[in-house]
Automatic annotation (TrEMBL):
<feature type="domain" description="Carboxymuconolactone decarboxylase-like">
    <location>
        <begin position="21"/>
        <end position="96"/>
    </location>
</feature>
<dbReference type="InterPro" id="IPR029032">
    <property type="entry name" value="AhpD-like"/>
</dbReference>
<protein>
    <submittedName>
        <fullName>Carboxymuconolactone decarboxylase family protein</fullName>
    </submittedName>
</protein>
<dbReference type="Pfam" id="PF02627">
    <property type="entry name" value="CMD"/>
</dbReference>
<dbReference type="InterPro" id="IPR003779">
    <property type="entry name" value="CMD-like"/>
</dbReference>
<dbReference type="InterPro" id="IPR004675">
    <property type="entry name" value="AhpD_core"/>
</dbReference>
């Protein structure tokens, strides 16, 4: 299976990708816990059916020390006992922020309050930006049908700068 277009070797796609990678770097350097970032990115990618991003964030999370048990339970996080209350709040936020067309009200006041109870202003700002960024990445990859399976942790590090 091949992508419809190779965005990494297209002048416009590559220029956009570099800026996209720099935005991701801002989030990577934020105080939002790395495990939370990967869990949120994985959950949004599952919802959006983005195989490329599911592959990426599963592998990045595993490389950062995430356990197979927790990775396997992300899709069923509400019924799983392996996530902290803070992670559960972030996962609810990711789902509501991703399913805008389904809920048309965005993130509920209840979920917002749960997020605010566990994260400071900088972490909340990073979480908001992360949900926006992963949803954009999912849409790009789904539209061009980037295939899953070939991602290696760190392979986009050279794109920043």
């Amino acid at each position: 299976m091949d992508a419809r277009i190779d965005m990494f070797h297209n002048e416009i796609g590559a220029a956009f990708g570099k800026r996209f990678a720099n935005a991701a770097l801002v989030l990577d350097r934020s105080p939002l816990p790395k495990a939370t970032q990967e869990l949120v990115s994985l959950r949004a990618s599952q919802i959006n059916g983005c195989g490329f991003c599911v592959d990426m964030h599963t592998k990045d999370a595993a490389a950062a020390g995430e356990t197979p048990l927790r990775l396997n339970l992300v899709a069923a996080w509400r019924e799983a006992t392996v996530f902290t209350e803070a992670e559960r709040a972030a996962l609810a936020f990711a789902e509501e922020g991703t399913r805008l067309a389904d809920a048309h009200r965005g993130v509920s006041d209840e979920t917002w309050a749960q997020v605010r109870a566990h994260y400071d202003d900088d972490q909340v700002a990073a979480l908001v930006c992360l949900v926006a960024l992963i949803n954009a990445a999912n849409r790009i990859n789904v539209i061009v049908r980037n295939p899953a399976g070939s991602y290696e942790p760190g392979m986009f590090a050279a794109m920043t700068g």
